[in-house]
Design brief:
Blueprint lengths: L2 H26 L8 H27 L2 H6 L2 H24 L6 H9 L5 H12 L8 H49 L9 H12 L12 H22 L2 H16 L2 H14 L1 H8 L6 H11 L2 H13 L10 H28 L7 H9 L8 H9 L3 H30 L1
Helix pairs in contact: 1-6, 1-14, 1-18, 2-7, 2-11, 2-13, 2-14, 4-5, 4-7, 4-15, 5-7, 5-15, 6-7, 7-9, 7-10, 7-11, 7-17, 11-12, 15-16, 15-18, 16-18
Length: about 425
């Protein structure tokens, strides 16, 4: 199959996302104001609680088997490698460009955490529907593609709400600590009228070493270093008090919280019903007693992709506001996500294929490669709103990375299909 034919196949799903996303952006603007921020949050909750779990359950329960789950063992490894290499590259960007303190975690997160859920649920089935698709007939390709995308969504959610959440949280905590110290330094001296007794008392305190704040002539770097040292010392004291099992319990609690989220529960139930033959027949067979349940779930699932794409377009309008983020940072993130990571992805998947670690299914290999090419996860924006730091900078990064994603996904999808066909 020719390169330009594959380019046409790859471009159609991206054009669909652009068109529907543009409608969402227009509905979110002040000219229309049908989809303001509050409305987007409400629709997003419906998608999160009802639509996405239904899509995952319907696709997995009907197509996946126990043998499939065993043979897909490399996908969590592949997703972990996207976070590992992206995190290393993001760390290099931070060290080279030296952004503001509160943006360090955001930059590393946008470099390491891809949109492993929403976009794959849109792009993969759409590619299978194209007439020139190199992945076989529409029905089998669509069913397999939805299963791969659902598994990617479930695994990606776990990685994002553990690794990425802790990354942004630690950066924000450090930033707030530095700001608190700087605020204390800026407090004017109100003790001009203090008597000798007060000064004598303060002198005693200083002799005993009770002063905990840096001197007023400290520079910003000095303050930051002192905060880091104090945090490390405090952390070491806490580590001494906190037992190993308490830390394990905290991590396990975070994992359980993610596993109990509606999309992940939908994926887990879909795997269970798909892996157990009698449950699958009970739900999806020709004379299944619960066939009406499966059909109702499919009806709910049909609303997932349009709603997700409209919300995506609406959320990107926030990036039109001005922010303090430097253009060099935007360019660096784009280079990491759309130039360096895709090349790493080709090398990783090709090496895994040559070593016999992955299936020979071209669609499966394509999904593994495309996981290295996705724009940043939308959940990063939710985290910045949660910590109330870097919202505008995050919106600007999202605007530019998702605009470039239209071209990057089309080009790299074409290259991937050309390599695998």
């Amino acid at each position: 199959m020719g390169f330009w034919t594959l380019f046409e196949v790859a471009s159609m799903p991206i054009l669909q996302v652009l068109i529907i996303g543009s409608v969402g952006a227009f509905l979110a603007t002040g000219y229309c104001n049908i989809l303001p921020a509050d409305a987007r949050k409400s629709v997003n909750k419906i998608v999160f609680v009802a639509f996405t779990p239904s899509l995952m359950f319907a696709g997995l329960a009907q197509t996946v088997t126990l043998q499939d789950m065993i043979s897909w063992w490399f996908m969590p490894v592949n997703i972990g490698l996207t976070f590992l290499f992206g995190g290393i590259l993001g760390w290099l960007v931070v060290k080279i460009l030296k952004p503001k303190q509160h943006l360090e975690g955001l930059i590393m997160a946008t470099c390491s955490s891809g949109n492993l859920g929403n976009l794959l649920l849109i792009v993969i089935p759409a590619i299978c529907e194209e007439d020139g698709s190199p992945f076989g007939d529409h029905a089998s390709c669509g069913a397999s593609g939805l299963s791969y995308a659902s598994l990617s969504t479930a695994l990606g959610g776990i990685f994002i709400w553990t690794y990425t959440y802790q990354l942004i949280r630690s950066s924000v905590t450090k930033y707030y600590a530095i700001q608190d110290v700087k605020d204390v330094i800026k407090v004017p001296n109100k003790e001009l009228d203090a008597n000798k007794e007060t000064h004598l008392l303060k002198g005693e305190d200083q002799e005993h070493g009770t002063s905990s704040f840096p001197p007023s002539n400290s520079t910003g770097e000095d303050v930051e270093k002192q905060v880091i040292v104090s945090q490390e010392s405090a952390g070491s004291l806490e580590d001494g008090k906190e037992s190993f099992w308490a830390r394990v319990a905290g991590i396990a609690g975070q994992m359980m919280k993610e596993l109990l989220s509606p999309p992940t529960l939908g994926a887990i139930l879909g795997f269970v019903f798909g892996a157990v033959p009698w449950l699958k027949n009970f739900l999806t067979g020709d004379e299944a007693p619960l066939r009406v349940v499966q059909d109702s779930v499919k009806l709910l699932a049909n609303g997932t992709i349009p709603c997700i794409t409209l919300i995506l377009g609406g959320n990107l309008t926030r990036g039109l506001r001005s922010s303090g983020i430097k253009p060099s940072i935007i360019i660096a993130v784009i280079c990491v996500r759309y130039f360096i990571l895709p090349l790493i992805g080709i090398a990783v998947v090709k090496a895994a294929s040559n070593l016999g670690f992955v299936l020979s299914d071209p669609l499966y290999l394509y999904v593994l490669m495309i996981q290295f090419t996705l724009p940043p996860a939308m959940n990063i924006g939710t985290m910045t709103e949660l910590f109330n730091v870097g919202q505008e900078e995050c919106s600007v990064l999202f605007l530019w990375t998702y605009l470039f994603a239209a071209l990057a996904l089309t080009v790299w999808s074409t290259i991937y299909m050309w390599l695998l066909s």
